[in-house]
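User: Hi! I'm working on a homework problem where we have to compare a predicted structure to a textbook description. Could you give me the structure for the chain below?
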Amino acid sequence: MLVWSRSGKAFAWSVAGFLILVIYLVPLGIIIAASFAGQWNGVWPSHFGLVNYADALHGQPGGALKASIATGVIASAIALFSGTMAALALRGLKGAPRRALDLMFFMPSAVPSVSVGLGLLVAFSRPPVLLNGTTAIVIIAHLVLVSAFTYGAVTAGLMQLPADVEQMAESLGATPAYRLRRVTLPLLAPYLAAAFSLSFALSMGELGATAMVYPPGWMTVPVTIFALTDRGDIFQGAALTAILIIATLAMLGVVQVGMRRLSR
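Assistant: Happy to help. Predicted structure tokens:
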């Protein structure tokens, strides 16, 4: 419902600002304050410093950050390629077959991530395919969880492309491979960037399936944060959470800049 009056708009903006403050900004501010704190015995934290960040960037937490970034990049890249190819292959399909295949691609996002992790753990814990205890099963778990979002983003992008542009390229003698490389994919660049960014952000924050399948030496940041807070190390967990947010936003910025340059 549209709000036309000035007082109504002011009320709507006030409610929205209050919700954003309570739901997003206050928790984020508490995490940042705790990440710099050495103690929190009163209303406000005390003994501020960078000790928590130094501890979070070395040893096992530092390795967890590298594992999360590597897992996110690899799983998102594979999901982007497979989702793009699937969306292109199903572009002209209509009716019940298209709906059935769409359902198959989106099904992993409709089930709890713990179920995905448990399924992979059961499926790949015995020969002939034994992946339990390897980093590959973590990447596969993330790939299963993010592939639906890449497929959906690329499919939405293909629906927005003007059909006459590709038809004009074909009428001028462009081969299917040339048309895909020089016409379709450049026009899809914003959607490809959005698909990779969303997949990477989801991978960096994934906990349920990863906690089920991660091997020793390949703990991701969310699993490490959970372990730290579970044993009472709240301040280092907050510092690692802030580092996770910064690393995710930095990677998303790099992807956006890179895709913008490629699209030009």
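For your comparison, note the following. Residues 6-36 form the longest helix (31 residues). The CA atoms of residues 85 and 217 lie 33 Å apart. Good luck with the assignment!
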